[in-house]
Design goal:
The protein is an all-alpha fold and 219 residues long. The chain is built from eight helices and no strands. α2 runs antiparallel to α3 and α4 runs parallel beside α7.
Length: 219
């Protein structure tokens, strides 16, 4: 679903002058506000919107203390992640150019999905959520450096990441640099639901999160 939406936006950007003008206004807003825009957008997309969605649709609009605890955890995590992703996009553009040719898009996907994701993003994502789900225990940190942990937890996360994000990154990297992070943030809201589901499954909380599992099937 999210891939189809992003593809429609990509086509509309190049085919419709009105859509293009609107997206360029968004890009200019990001340029003016810089890092604060990046952090606030990432926090909204990765932490606030998914938590509100869960409260409204799966908790019958009844906030609980665990929602506040979740936000106290997810807000700094996604603020850091958003800043890092924007830095990655700008670094790739500086290295390979801000162009949407096939070789450049493929090279950026390779760096993103098979470099950054394998070496940092997937292990960091699983570690942080396992750390939270284990009650802030040091065990996930110790397990991180074992092959058993990587095979059973990091690798499934990578496979899910590639299935969702390789098509998305082909679309995002086909846009100018100024629009890449705003469109990434749109996709992030959907991805964080899947990531939360997977890490809770690893922690043995799948029954409690069954509605979330149902929601992520639409991805």
């Amino acid at each position: 679903m999210i891939q189809a939406l992003m593809l429609a936006l990509l086509i509309a950007f190049y085919a419709s002058s009105s859509v293009s003008a609107a997206l360029w206004q968004l890009a200019e807003f990001k340029r003016r506000h810089g890092v604060p825009f990046v952090i606030l957008t990432a926090v909204a997309a990765g932490a606030v919107v998914p938590e509100l969605f869960l409260i409204l649709f799966f908790q019958r609009a009844r906030p609980k203390r665990r929602n506040l605890r979740n936000l106290l955890f997810t807000i700094p995590v996604w603020a850091f992640d958003g800043w890092l992703v924007d830095l990655l996009y700008r670094g790739e553009a500086a290295l390979l150019g801000d162009v949407a040719s096939v070789p450049v898009v493929l090279a950026k996907i390779g760096i993103d999905q098979f470099g950054y994701n394998v070496l940092f993003a997937a292990p960091f994502g699983v570690l942080t959520y396992e750390w939270k789900n284990s009650g802030i225990s040091l065990r996930p940190v110790r397990d991180l450096f074992t092959w058993h942990h990587y095979r059973d937890k990091i690798l499934p996360t990578l496979l899910a990441t590639w299935a969702v994000w390789i098509p998305l990154m082909a679309i995002i990297y086909s846009l100018p640099l100024a629009l890449q992070f705003p469109l990434f943030s749109l996709a992030l809201s959907f991805w964080v639901l899947l990531l939360t589901y997977m890490t809770n499954r690893f922690a043995g909380k799948i029954e409690a999160d069954a509605p979330l599992a149902l929601a992520t099937r639409e991805l």
